């Protein structure tokens, strides 16, 4: 049971980090295409507004999906850190200290 939760947590950490990088790319794409649509900062010279709108529409749901995957996974880890969600690793360390384990 504990081994499975370690694997799940490792996968969740990978999800949190990978989705962060994908999000960074998607957000940059939305910023550039958004400015192209509004004709600001010369972005409409980099990409045509019609093309920018198509990109906005195609990548709309991936942006939302990656945002929720990233936010949910990092919030889960924050809740574990704060002790709201039970944390077996912290509990084991506490028990170890209580039994006189060394700090190293
Ligand atoms: C569009 C918005 C966002 C972008 C582009 C973004 C991007 C990133 C990137 C690139 C990383 C680094 C991943 C790595 O270490 O390899 C990261 C990590 C992180 N992000 Fe975000 N993020 C966004 C939104 C959020 C939100 C809304 C939250 C909080 C709810 C959040 C909390 C965190 C935390 C706590 C980490 C550290 C995860 C860890 O390695 O333990 N981020 N994010």
Overall tally of structural domains: 1
**Strand share of the residues?**
under 5%
What string gives the helices and strands in order? Answer: HHHHH
- Count of DSSP strands: 0
Average pLDDT: 92
Helix content, binned percent: over 70%
Q: What count of helical segments does DSSP give?
A: 5
| Rg of Cα set | 21 Å
Could you describe the 3D structure shown?
- There is one protein chain.
- With 104 residues, the chain is mainly alpha-helical.
- The protein has one domain (19-96).
- Helix content is 81%, strand content 0%.
- It contains five helices and no strands.
- The chain has helices spanning 2-38, 43-46, 49-58, 60-81, 88-98.
- The two termini are 27 Å apart.
- The model has no long low-confidence stretch (mean pLDDT 92).
- It binds protoporphyrin IX containing FE.
- Protoporphyrin IX containing FE is lined by residues 16-17, 20-21, 23-24, 27, 67, 70-71, 74-75, 77.
């Amino acid at each position: 049971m504990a081994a499975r939760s370690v694997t799940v947590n490792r996968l969740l950490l990978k999800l949190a980090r990978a989705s962060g990088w994908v999000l960074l790319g998607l957000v940059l794409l939305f910023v550039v295409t958004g400015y192209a649509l509004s004709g600001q900062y010369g972005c409409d010279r980099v990409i045509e507004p019609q093309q920018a709108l198509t990109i906005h529409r195609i990548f709309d749901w991936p942006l939302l999906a990656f945002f929720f995957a990233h936010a949910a996974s990092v919030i889960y880890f924050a809740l574990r850190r704060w002790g709201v969600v039970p944390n077996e690793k912290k509990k084991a360390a506490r028990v170890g200290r209580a039994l006189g384990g060394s700090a190293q």
